[in-house]
Every structure is written in structure tokens, then in C-alpha cells.
Amino acid sequence: MSLVTMRELLQDARKRKYAVGGFNVFNFETLSAVMEVAEELKTPLVLGIPERLFKFVDVDTLSAAMVRAAQKASVPVALHLDHGHTYEGVLKAIRWGFTSVMFDGSALPLAENLKRTKDITRIAHTLGISVEGELGYVGFNDSKTDIKEDNIVTPDIAAEFVDKTKIDALAVAVGNNHGAYRGSPKLNFSRLSELNQAVNVPLVMHGGSRLSREEYRNSIVSGISKINIATDMSQAASDTLKAELLKSPNANYIHLMTVVKKGVKDSVRKYMLAFECISKAV
């Protein structure tokens, strides 16, 4: 099993109607937490790190650990650069040995997004690396902008984008929101189904934290093959740490790391169960 491309994982997920979890890690504890749950539940896995984290962590060391963990795994793992915004970030991930990169040009004018995504796909495909692109406005938990109809991707634009860029997966905006949701999310499942019919690649949901089990099922049925989780893992780590310090204010750091890791594992397990990817590692 071990290290595979994201294209391989998502094509199977699309065919068999489940979603692969795209879990972003930010240190060794979260890396081992995600890997251990994937092994336990026998799930395929997209293991990622976003480019924005490069300035906060020693990514050269962490990426090497991610590669090693994937190579040792008994389940298929794709290593993924999440939300790459620069050519430099994408090339770093390629040099590290990642099997998948995302170029997020969704904030750019459509023509510029298409051009840059196409250029990156051409380079990545030459090296056997999968590419994810993004279209539409996916909000943030602290954004002042409401998600309106104008921000939601249309099938004709999605079809043209996929055809011209040759990407392997497309992240789409259908009312989803990065970070913690303010109020209840309003996902446009009918638009999602239209997008799935319009393109020939798996669709990706960003901002997948804390939806209901029914919303995950409806998303998968409507065409989503990968759901990204990052916010809730981080929140689980901090909530677990706070609770443990209240209970044991003199706890040593090694004990705290162990407790935090368990909290992250519980969060990851909950999502993998909701994504219906259990025992899909074949």
C-alpha cells in the first residue's frame, strides 16, 4: 500500500461513494495521531500540510517524517500540499517527495487562476504527481463576507476549468466555509450534483469540520470524494490541553503530549467514521 497518488485514492472513492479524509498535520503528535487511526480503521488517507504553515514549523523536518510515515504505512497514503499559493511552495512539496499538490488560485481572476493551475499541472503530471485546483469563494470563520450565490461555482465554468487545466481533483465552493462555522452551514447540494455531472474528476470539500452526519452523506452522494479537516484537529488539541491542565495543573509536558494526541485521535476517528471510508484500504 504505502505511498500513492491522490488521483488513485479519489478515483476509487468516487466510484465506491465514500470520501477520503484530507487531514492536515502540524507537528509530530498530530502526524502520528492521524496515521495511527488510519491504520486502526484501515482507511485510505490524504495527509497534508498547507503552505501557510511553512513559516510556523520546521517543514523540512516534518515533511521528511510524513514521507517516512507514508512509506511504512499498511494503508494507502497520498502526501499533499494543501492550499499552495506560490510556485515556490509547490516546488518544495515536489522536492520533498509529496505525491499531490494543490494550487489555490481561487482568489485570483478566473483567467489567471486557470493559467497558473494549468502551468503547475503540466509540471506535476510530468513527474507523476496529482494536482488539485480550486474554484469559487470558500469563506473563513472570521470573514465579513457572506457566502452568496455569486460565490458558488457554476457547472459551465467548472467544466471549462477542468478541461483546460487537466487537474485531477477540483475543490468547489457550494456554501462551505473554512474554520468554525458561524451559525448553520447552507450547503447547496443540488449545485454540487450539477458540478459532479459536469466534470470528470473527483470533487473536494474544504471547510469540512463539524458538519452533521447527514450533511457528510449528502455531500458524498452529491459528488464529494475528499473532505478536508484541519480546524477541528487543532481545536481538539487545544481543548484537550486546557481540560487536562484544569484537572492536573502540575502535569509534565510528556504527559500533556500524550493526552493531546489522544484528543486528536478521537477527533480524527469521528470524521473517518462519518466519511464512510472504513476498511476501504484495499
Textual characterization of the structure:
This protein has 282 residues and is α/β, with parallel strands linked by helices. The protein has one domain: TIM Barrel (Alpha-Beta Barrel). The chain contains ten helices and eight strands. It has helices spanning 6-16, 28-41, 59-72, 87-96, 110-126, 155-165, 189-198, 213-221, 231-247, 253-274; strands at residues 20-24, 45-50, 77-84, 100-103, 130-135, 169-172, 203-205, 224-229. The chain has an eight-stranded parallel beta barrel, surrounded by nine helices. Helix 8 links the parallel strand 7 (203-205) and strand 8. 49% of the residues are buried. The model is unreliable at 139-148 and 178-183 (pLDDT under 50).
CATH architecture type: Alpha-Beta Barrel
What gross morphology would you assign?
A: globular
**Given the helix and strand composition, which structural class is it?**
alpha/beta
Q: Supply the CATH superfamily name.
A: Aldolase class I
CATH class: Alpha Beta
- What is the count of β-strands? 8
Largest sheet strand order: 1-2-3-4-5-6-7-8
Q: Tell me the Rg in angstroms.
A: 18 Å
The number of distinct helices, counting runs of at least 4 residues, comes to 10
Average of pLDDT: 91
Low-confidence stretches at least 5 residues in length (pLDDT < 50)? 139-148, 178-183
Approximately what portion of the residues adopt beta-strand conformation?
Answer: 5-15%
Kindly identify the CATH topology: TIM Barrel
Instruction: Estimate nothing, just give the exact number of structural domains.
Output: 1
Organism: Anaeroselena agilis
Protein name: Class II fructose-bisphosphate aldolase family protein
Cofactor: Zn(2+)
